[in-house]
């Protein structure tokens, strides 16, 4: 795979519009995410309630996954993105008017239902915009477009804006960013060939729905490398979701500073930016072989973070964690985009999204419960040593090492 420079691929106006749409929408999401987590925890002081909101957001990715992937593979992905953005505008705008936690849970669930169509369409569309040689760099640029506004700006300012201007300003701004995102996506010109021979009139037939979903599962099951790397990344997502769930609790109870939560999230974003900058120099095939030891390093970082009580040192550790997780995530997405057929890509990403939601839901519930009845540090120890065990397991035998698909 050739190393294509960023400035070269940014001459692609379609990619530029795509990146701009992500930047502005993620800015709103960053403010939204930090504000709603702090708001919910300030009301309930309960890790279980925080877990419920995160679970409400994750459930649709599991429930709707057999349907979303087929829709993405049968309809124009650009249109799916635009419609998804527009539908989320009124739902997000309603959040500050909620008077109970149940209303927040319902709106969160509905927003997630729409997002469950958006995410596989977003990942599946990119290879239609850029060439294979440009995919790794394009994914690293998109990661920057997410990390800078979401983690650096949004996470750092979310709590400040919430306390200064109130929840209404935060969520109305987030709703506005979806409108701007839809505008930039509308400007993209793309030839989507995967829909040429598709008949839409029978898409809701249950038998056909299951058959098409099974095609995606079979495609994954028949490819050792694909199956192995998806399983590995799903387990890592399981562990990291547990950590993300209790980070706000760790900040309050262990570090004894609610401000540190935003700093840790922002530090994670800085690490993500560094990872996105450097991953563009990787060779995609060779990079697969460093994923397992990289996550073992992440495990060591998790353990060190759990025994640390200094905010600055914690921020440094989160920079390193963000670097590792982001770099490996970019490699993973690029690998999937490169080695899956266009007409199946939506289904593959919907399966991945379902796995990334189902197992993390279990992690969220367990983490919230453990943090409530026991010591939150146990969660960090478990995640850290599990990642280290992955390294030992995959390197014990050559047969378990990830093979490269030609």
Automatic annotation (TrEMBL):
Gene Ontology cellular-component annotations: plasma membrane
Keywords: Cell membrane, Membrane, Transmembrane, Transmembrane helix, Transport
Subcellular location: Cell membrane
Main location: membrane
Pfam families tied to this protein: MFS_1
GO MF annotations, alphabetized: transmembrane transporter activity
Organism encoding this protein: Anoxybacter fermentans
Transmembrane region(s): 20-41, 53-72, 93-118, 160-186, 228-249, 261-279, 286-305, 311-336, 348-371, 377-394
Membrane topology per record: Multi-pass membrane protein
Keyword Transmembrane helix part of the UniProt annotation: yes
Domain Major facilitator superfamily (MFS) profile: 14-398
Lineage: Bacteria, Bacillati, Bacillota, Clostridia, Halanaerobiales
Protein name as annotated: Major facilitator superfamily (MFS) profile domain-containing protein
Domain of life: Bacteria
């Amino acid at each position: 795979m050739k190393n294509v420079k960023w400035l070269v691929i940014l001459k692609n106006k379609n990619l530029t519009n795509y990146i701009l749409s992500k930047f502005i929408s993620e800015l709103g999401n960053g403010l939204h995410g930090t504000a709603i987590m702090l708001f919910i925890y300030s009301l309930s002081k309960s890790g279980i309630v925080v877990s419920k909101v995160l679970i409400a957001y994750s459930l649709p990715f599991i429930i709707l996954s057999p349907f979303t992937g087929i829709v993405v593979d049968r309809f124009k992905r650009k249109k799916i993105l635009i419609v998804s953005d527009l539908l989320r505008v009124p739902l997000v705008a309603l959040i500050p008017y909620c008077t109970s936690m149940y209303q927040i849970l319902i709106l969160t669930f509905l927003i997630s239902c729409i997002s469950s169509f958006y995410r596989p369409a977003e990942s599946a569309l990119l290879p239609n915009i850029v060439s294979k040689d440009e995919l790794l760099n394009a994914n690293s640029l998109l990661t920057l477009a997410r990390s800078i506004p979401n983690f650096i700006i949004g996470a750092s300012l979310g709590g400040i804006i919430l306390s200064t201007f109130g929840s209404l300003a935060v969520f109305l701004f987030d709703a506005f960013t979806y409108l701007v995102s839809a505008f930039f996506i509308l400007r993209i010109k793309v030839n989507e060939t995967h829909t040429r021979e598709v008949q839409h009139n029978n898409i809701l037939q249950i038998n056909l729905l299951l058959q098409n979903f099974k095609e995606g599962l079979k495609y994954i099951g028949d490819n050792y490398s694909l199956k192995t790397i998806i399983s590995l990344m799903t387990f890592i997502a399981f562990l990291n979701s547990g950590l993300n769930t209790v980070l706000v609790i760790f900040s309050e109870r262990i570090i004894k500073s609610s401000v540190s939560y935003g700093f840790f999230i922002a530090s994670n974003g800085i690490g993500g930016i560094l990872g996105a900058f450097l991953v563009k120099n990787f060779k995609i095939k060779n990079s697969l072989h460093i994923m397992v030891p990289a996550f073992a390093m992440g495990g060591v970082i998790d353990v060190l973070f759990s025994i640390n009580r200094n905010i600055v040192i914690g921020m440094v550790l989160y920079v390193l964690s963000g670097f590792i997780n982001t770099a490996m995530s970019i490699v993973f997405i690029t690998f999937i985009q490169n080695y899956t057929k266009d007409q199946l890509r939506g289904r593959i990403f919907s399966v991945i999204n379902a796995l990334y939601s189902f197992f993390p839901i279990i992690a969220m519930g367990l983490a919230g419960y453990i943090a409530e009845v026991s010591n939150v540090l146990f969660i960090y120890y478990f995640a850290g040593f599990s990642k280290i065990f992955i390294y030992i397991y995959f390197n014990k035998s050559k047969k378990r090492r990830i093979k490269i698909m030609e």
